[in-house]
Structures are given as C-alpha cells and as structure tokens.
Amino acid sequence: MINDLNRFVCMGHIGADPKPLTSDNAPVRLSVATSSNWTVENTKNTRTEWHTIVVFGNLRKYAAKLKKGDRVYIESEARNNNYERTVGGETITIYSTEFVATQIDRLATKTEAEE
Prior knowledge:
Order of helices and strands: EEEHEEH
Structural class: mainly beta
Shape: globular
C-alpha cells in the first residue's frame, strides 16, 4: 500500500528578516520568493510566487538567524487554513495555504547570492 505524501520543496530567497523570537513557543514566519523565467518571441518574462513558511520546534532558532535575500532550500508540509471576515456587511471566507518547515538549509547569504 502506498502512503499519503504531503511534501512541498522550494528553493528561493527570503523576502524579509524574520521577526525576533518573542517566546519559547512562538513560531517563526518566513516569506520566501520563488521565480520562474521564460522567453516568448524574444521577450523575457518572470513570474514570482511568494510562500509563507512557518517554523516550529528546534528549527526556529536557525530560521530566526536568516536574513532578507538569503537563498534557502526548504522542505515542508502544506497546511490549509480558513477564517471568516466581514467586508461591506457581508461575511466571506478567506482561504490560505502555509507551509510548515521540516528542513531548512541556507545555500547562500544575500551577498553570495548576488554574485
């Protein structure tokens, strides 16, 4: 029997410095950008996707040391969330996906990544 698999792997750049750890249990949130490049009729195109990475446990201390622009490799599990918000008197449901990190590796610092 084949087991289920919930795995997201990405390699990209940190979008902002992580906020300092505020407590022993607070997760660290990272914003990671991944880009795709392609050419159509000699026109270069780029599309950038932003991913919210949430880090718990022992990995938090390592993630908190990352800096904006660092190139990282991340393995994680997808988690879907939803909540309700009232907009203009109407209640709507907002859906979002975040990724809970299981492994993070810094591949290059910002200055190394720019070379």
